[in-house]
Predict the 3D structure of the following.
Amino acid sequence: MSKSLLLVSALALGLGTLAQAAPRDDHRADGMPTDTERAAWHQERCADRYAHRVGEIAYLETRLALTGAQRGAFDNWKRIVLSNAKSGSDACGADRPHDMNGPPSIVDRERHMEAMMKTRIEFLDAELPALTALYQTLTPEQKMALDHGHGGPHGRHGHEGGGPGRHGPDGGPGADG
């Protein structure tokens, strides 16, 4: 490595460390983040969710090594999944982060859960026909890759209801042990 490149790298590392160590003027006196900081953090998390989903779909697309005959079904499914992910990211970004002065009430939490479940059902109603059509075009090896590489709109873990991959390669209940 050249001396100038080494010097630039060391300088960048040093400035980054100083920036992280610098006191933050926008924190409240009690050290808690301000409303502005919480809102910025929330916006970043919402954008990260969408970016993560785009990455998962790109991974699957590469992993499946689609044929020309399979491309249309995949593209249709991908459009639905990414449209849903973008809508979710936009809705997430429009939500105001929880007021840190107190926890939400049980009524607020239940309303939020109801809205999430309704959105999930709407997504499944749109996704399942396209996913089924795609799945029917795949080889057994591709089906296995999709079954294990996709867990619904929340990735491999399927925290919000699962999806393909939840029950193993044959899709039957309890197939994953």
Q: What stands out?
A: Helices lie at 3-21, 35-64, 68-94, 106-137, 140-149. Residues 119 and 125 are 10 Å apart (CA to CA). The chain has a mean pLDDT of 75. Residues 106-137 form the longest helix (32 residues).
